[in-house]
Amino acid sequence: MKKNVVFVILLMLVTISIQAKPFYVSPSGNDAHEGSYESPWQTIQKGVEMVEAGDTLIIRDGVYRITKEIRPKNSGTPDQWITYRVLPGEKAVIDAEGFVSADSEGTFPSRLGLGSFHLEKVSYISVEGLRVRNSRSAGYIVRGPSSHIHLIDCKTDRSYNSGIGIWYADHVKVLYCEVTRANEPDMRVSGQPFGREAPHEAISICGAKHFEVAYNHVHQCFKEGIDVKEVSANGVVHHNHIHDLPRQGLYVDAWFGLLHDVVFHSNVVHDCEWGFAISVEGKDSELKNVKFHNNLLFDNRASGIIFGVWGNNRLRSNIEIYNNTIYNNGTPGHWAGTTGGIDIKSVNMKDVKIYRNIILNNWGFEIGISLHPDKVVEELEKRNVTISDNITGLFKSKPSDFSFFEIEMHGFLPQNNIIADPLFTDPLRSDFSIPFYSPAAGNAAKNKDEFNAFYFGALRPGEKSWLNWK
Fold first, then answer.
1. Cβ(416)–Cβ(392) under 8 Å?
2. CA distance 165 to 170
């Protein structure tokens, strides 16, 4: 399905670009040329300096080695975008191993850094099918004031900073991209002073507004997967596949003020530390209006979902977590203590709804909370937190010899939840589809306002495993 959608998008882009003026760049070209098909430019930088609104720069097959970031000069307009795209069927790679970006003093690589492909103070630009590798800073950066930027079917492999970073830019889309080996310590330049680890995450969304991050594949990186953080707002993260990471696959984390109105849906996260983390680390910061629904979180080493206590642990409110499948998360003897399904470690929250999830076969608890069992109902009522209509396994509350910030977790199962087997088709082979007679489908059908009464968890009854949409 993914390949078909990408083909349709590329076909539309090709059709549009036929009406625009095309220019060409090739490693065998010359920057003194006119940039035609017969006489292409040699460097991508020459191309991005020359094209104007309505133009298309076609990047031909080959490796483009850089010693300085590629930085577009001109912007498009709402009805005449600038497009940089790789010719379909060819493979264009930017190799940035020889490029080291310095901070304002010019003495060492910057923590924020530059992207090897760097878009700043430009708008209405689409980058399609381009690859970046071996970046000692970030792969791609979109930095404000920039707006209406699309990264489509791009790839980045091996970067010290983020594979893709969106910094205080508006109306940005990151679609069908692949990020591998982001935040790799071995890409650190000698003398770099910033602590013990590489900065940021595989895909970092920092203070962005009106963004979409969808259908991306993030795997085999060295830190977190997709992180929506700082004062980001009005964005959606959906249909991403995230796996094999040493930290959380999905993360939302407020810093420097208010983060609000972000939706995560239809993502698949497995073989990470945590599946999804909700935190408010920044001082004087707040998070509100976050929805997390129809996601599939399984086989993660720590909990499927965690309300984190990192940093200043400030208030999060108006959160809805529903219709997710949370299966086989948590491991015995974990360094963070008891881990499991939904891990409510921080209770600095209000107006939270957790409902109609399938929470099954998780290690230490299906739902765990740091409140004392004798106080939990009263304290949740004070915070207007409801946990209802979830399907879970039998109640469990396993102790641990380890603690996380000296916090003791307790299993919790409210009376208005259901203990049942959802009858997954084949969870050992990661097929979490359910039949129409599943107790999970019946539970969902009780809500008459649902568009599809059988829609429960990450898949509809009879729908194939997530393995089929890669």
1. no
2. 13
Count of CB atoms within 10 A of residue 191's CB? 8
Q: What is the pLDDT of residue 56?
A: 98
Number of helical H runs and strand E runs in the chain? 4, 37
CB atoms within 10 A of CB 291: 17
User: Where does 2-469 sit in CATH, by number?
Assistant: 2.160.20.10
pLDDT score, position 102: 56
Tens of pLDDT, residue by residue over 292-349, are 999 999 999 999 999 999 999 999 999 999 999 999 999 999 999 999 999 999 999 9
Q: What is the mean pLDDT of residues 246-269?
A: 97
Q: Please give the structure tokens belonging to residue 4.
A: 């078909």
pTM of the model: 0.90
Residue written as token pair 């998780």: 362
Instruction: Report the alpha-carbon distance of residue 212 to residue 208 in Å, rounded.
Output: 10
CA-wise closest residue to 69 among 50, 96, 49: 96
Q: Is residue 43 within 8 Å of residue 72, measured between CB atoms?
A: no
Give the amino acid at 36. Answer: S
Q: Torsions phi, psi of 7, nearest 5?
A: -60, -45
Q: Would you list the DSSP string of 367-417?
A: EEESS-TTTHHHHHHHHTEEEES-EE-S------S--BTTB--EE---TTS
- 380-406 residues labelled b (16+ CB within 10 A) or e (exposed): beeeebebebbbbbeebbeebeeebee
Domain boundaries, the chain: 2-469
Report pLDDT digits (tens) over 422-432: 998 888 888 88
Position 283, amino acid: K
pLDDT at position 469 over 90: no
Partners of 64 in the beta sheet?
94
pLDDT of residue 15 exceeding 50 = no
